[in-house]
## 1
Amino acid sequence: MPIPPASSSLPRSLLRDDVYLRLRDAIVDGTFEPGEQLKDGDLAAWLGVSRTPVREALLRLSASGLVVAQPGRSTTVSPIDETALRDARDVVAAMHELAVRETVARLDANDIARMREANRRFIAAAERGDVSAALDADDDLHAVPVEALGNAAVTRVLEQFGPIVRRAERLRFGTDASAAAERHERFIALCEKRDAAAAAMMAYETWHTLPVTAPRATG
């Protein structure tokens, strides 16, 4: 689809990360579709910023595999490639397994409450068909052990490869939302019982068993 005709301007104090996140999210949520050409001038106008942070964001997105940059020619949104998706899924699964295994013993009542609240939001969003809100809630739930771990390297890896997995997951979301909510509850219960081995295994399997066949967009 073309660049949206209007967007609320971002503050002048906008950091490079903010531009990157806006563009990343627009790719993940399908605003910019696979194969679509991204022109830095159009994107800068859409976001209300100069071309410099847009160009820097596109370089980061290229490193993440979300766009394909051809120097001197064009930058396009990358297709959902099965090999890249499988690789990203496996890395994401391993990082979440590590975070859970290392932190379950020190998660407190507030952490568990945050996870349960996120699952309630997940259920509510799934019931009303709000895919973005549901996936945001899912991210919030799984972020609790990652935040507790406090490992900057793990965080950077998830920031790089997580969007690749989420992008594909959006296109197939909805077929097992109720089952996902039940898995969340079982996972939270294992964390609450401080069963690090079982919780870590469940975290790994939750991510690792995601299908890697490139989904087809509908509509």
## 2
Amino acid sequence: MKLNFFILLSFFSLFSFGQDLAILKYKGGGDWYSNPTALTNLIKFCNENIETQLTEKPETVEAGSVDIFRFPLLHMTGHGNVFFEADDVTNLRRYLESGGFLHIDDNYGMQPYIIRELKKIFPNQELEELPSTHPIFTAAFEFKDGLPKIHEHDGKRPQAFGLYNKERLVVLFTFESDLGDGWEDQEVHNDSEEVRLKALQMGANIIKYAFEN
């Protein structure tokens, strides 16, 4: 009971006193820490272009910690294995059902693991592909064709998948796009300014949508 009260109090405080985002640290051996410059650049872009007031350097929180309830948006990325223990699953489910939002950006190789682990959180749901008409693609900048392609990887089309809680999108899984690589410092991947701008604009859409829905 005390833990539940603390969670509710933390979450209430979050929406009463500000909005921010955090990096989700997970178990399983995957590199949750990849793309170290990505979120800092995205935050700067959002503060300059969509009137957010995000903290310049995002915090890192663990999946099983009550600290996740301080943030309306969690960002998760990596290349390899992901594993949620029972306490992580319970914590993340409560977070998402309480109004939180999780963005998972596949940096390459996460897909089979994240599908397995999300099943633990919402066992009665399958990831659904978002249509290009979904409002997340026009939240701040318009993407008429849906999720932009940032990196080639396997050459497949970029796809955005979602999970819902009572018709509210609570999990966004971006696949074959690699937005985070486009958010990184330019010299990391040598992306063109056009490609980086698309990635940053789509990232801004995700943040704006998560904060307003």
